[in-house]
Amino acid sequence: MEKINYIFYSWSEYIRSNRIIGIYLIVLALSTIIVALLAEKNELHTYDNLKKTINLELYFKNSVYLLLTGIIISTFMLIPFTVLVLMQFQTVFYSYNSLWSMAIILPIIAFALTLLIIYLYNRLSKKGFVIVTVLISILLILCGNMFKSTEQLTTFDSQHDQVSYEDSRPLLDRLEQYAVSQNYSDGITILAPKNITTYVHMYPGNIKTLYGKDIWDSSMAPYTYNVYSDDCYNLYTWINCTEAYGSFYHIDDQTPVQSYYLSLSSTNEFDTVEDLESAALCNKLEGGTPYISLARQCNVDIIVLYSDGKRLDNDALDLITQKENIEQEYIAINETEGYILLIL
Amino acid sequence: MNIILLIISLLCFPFLIGYGVVKSFKFIHIKITKTDSCVTESALGRISTYITVGSIVILIISGVINALSVFSHLSISKAGKIFCIAIVVLTVMSILAFVLKYVSANKKANISTKSIPSRFRSGKNHGSSSKTSKSLVVLSLFALIIAIIQVILVLFVYRSSYYGNQTLETVVSFINTDQIYSVDPLTGTPFTNGHPLRLSLQCLPFFYTVICNIFSLTPITIVWKIMPAFWMICSYFAIYRIADSLFKTDSRKMIMLICFELLLWCSNSSFGSTGYNIFHIGYSEVTVLEIILIFWTIGTLLSHTRPAVLLSIIAEPLIASTRFGIGACFFITLVFIVLTQIPSVKRLISAVDDAKGGSDGKN
Fold it and tell me: Considering CB atoms only, which of A39, A69, A298 is closest to B339?
């Protein structure tokens, strides 16, 4: 039942965002009627008259096969039970939208448009035909979507706190240079906000991360069997919240934003901030704040603490850099460049 | 310079390999082009067939070598060399086949004295043929201009979407490690929960990696720019092949191609629609499956060269995820074969043929 609900939901979403499907179904409906009429022998004179007036010059048999194939597959796509069977075979790995590629939508609509143009060519004068075809071409171009989808992708990126690859490139170059300068032959591991983690594996350098984009992009599920630990999710939440708010508190009302404090200690393990020995830390954070020890995770060489113009306030930076028996340094690369690399 | 070499290679190798494969199939009496049937095929139709067949054969070769690398743990460098050798051997054989055909055709022309076409004997058809060719030239120019605009937009303007896809990350990991799926593309570290075999057998990341290595270009240039434009150009040829099976005159076929090109913009709305897939995720297996394999399947089934559909059925599990190797191409072929056996459809076709005097071609 859940799968059937999913199919109805996917269908309605796909129709809402894809006008071409509506045109396609109208074309198919009209084609079905014409083919059904011609299937009766008594109606063959209709075809003779049609052929005389239209002069189609096409391979009628192939046209019938093309239309009927589209009709049958589209019918399968609209009946939930056949869609379930198809999804078991084809799209258990892909989405419902991908199934529609089998219905050969664009070739059938292109075929229908060509028939229309041929009909107009045989009915209109030369001048009239040229005017009408130019109008049809302009109409198709106006109905089209040359640049809006690119704008939608850009808007989608900004809604998900993503910057472009080109904007992330300077930081990635800097990280790679640092790795080479320190002779990290196996590359470096970084903990970074989402918009850096997205692009770091598209960058032709040897930079690793603790988790991939599948931790937040659920559409990656068919491609990966990764199961991340709770600690990994905590780190992901911590780094992105720090990135979003620039501190451990809401800027406006000073309430704690996220419930995690990142410790760089390898010797002590704490459950709450209250267990920390540092008075300064206890003064800064409210009680009961859960606590992550980075040292219990895998090795991280560099933490990218901020990017995209947001910066940590000095208090938060002090908290992170308070040492507890660990050698570390942080580098404020340049405030205008927009990131801080905390090198462990 | 490397980009120019890559473009020349992408234009030449599919054509040459497709020519060789089509001729070799003809040699063993398997029809891929329509020259042996009573439905004639235009020159551009034959070119479309060669390029589409060549692209699919190249994908099959990369799929086989990718599978070989997965099971025998070959490095990408070695597997890339094997791939290059295979492509070069096929190309050389195709060129030899072309040379042999040209030589034998010349011999026949020298022997025969009846080869002067009737249109050159008398000037009767000059007027209509020049009118037809004029309109065809205009339509072809129009189609070419739209195609060039779309290629330029894909190369320089349109953004590639990386949501729900890890092709680029996979290519980068292949280049970094010189192995196929030795590390997780999303983290750069070894796999913790294993990697599904069906994903390992998908050959597109391997194919793109080999191209990156051969031409020393960055993965982003190949995966997000060059290859989507290449697949889009191949889709034009695949659509022309469908049009070749539907219309008898070249100008009608060109009109259908133009309509398809304009409709790509109309369907550039959301994920899953053809236009969006071509313009924004043209590198992915979903797009290649739709615009190359499925269009080839339809074109082949309509042109009555049905054994050739095996190319797309074999290629599909090597490119996209399928269940037990059965995917969309197989399903469409099955529907088509069942359709041709339905009595009422047969009755319709035969009745129409009777009404037209049987001039619509044999089945």
Answer: A69
Closest listed residue to residue A117, CA positions, set B74, B87, B139: B139
B29 by DSSP, 3-state: which? Answer: coil
Q: For the segment B64-105, what is each residue's pLDDT rounded down to a tens digit? A: 999 999 999 889 999 999 999 999 999 998 888 888 877 777
Contact of B212 with B171, CB cutoff 8 Å = yes
Instruction: Describe the crossing of helices B204-215 and B167-177 by its angle, rounded to 10 degrees.
Output: 50
Rounded to 5°, the CA angle A169-A175-A177 comes to 100
Q: Is the pLDDT of residue B148 over 90?
A: yes
The answer to the question of residue B186 being in a domain is yes
Residue A101 to chain B, least CA–CA distance (Å): 6
Q: Is A209 in the B-facing interface, judged by CB distances under 8 Å? A: yes
Q: The tokens 């041929």 sit on which residue?
A: A118
Question: Which residue, among B130, B178, B154, B177, has the nearest Cα to B283 in the 3D structure?
Answer: B154
Closest partner CB to A89 (pick from B326, B347, B363): B326
Torsion, Cα A237 B168 A89 B287, to 10 degrees, reads 120
Q: What are the Cα distances from residue B156, in Å, to A92, B46, B225, B263?
A: 34, 31, 8, 21
Structure tokens belonging to residue A230: 């709770």
Pair of tokens at residue B254:
């060109």
Asked if the structure places residue B121 within a domain, the reply is no
CA distance A107 to B236: 11
Tell if the CB–CB gap between A38 and B353 is shorter than 8 Å.
Answer: no
Size of interface A-B (CB pairs under 8 A): 282
In a domain, B19, yes or no: yes
Which range of residues forms the domain containing residue B201? 2-108+137-356
What's the residue count for chain A? 344
Q: B133 in contact with A at a CB cutoff of 8 Å? A: no
pLDDT band of A312, cuts 50, 70, 90: low
Q: Are strands A302-306 and A339-343 parallel, antiparallel or unpaired?
A: antiparallel
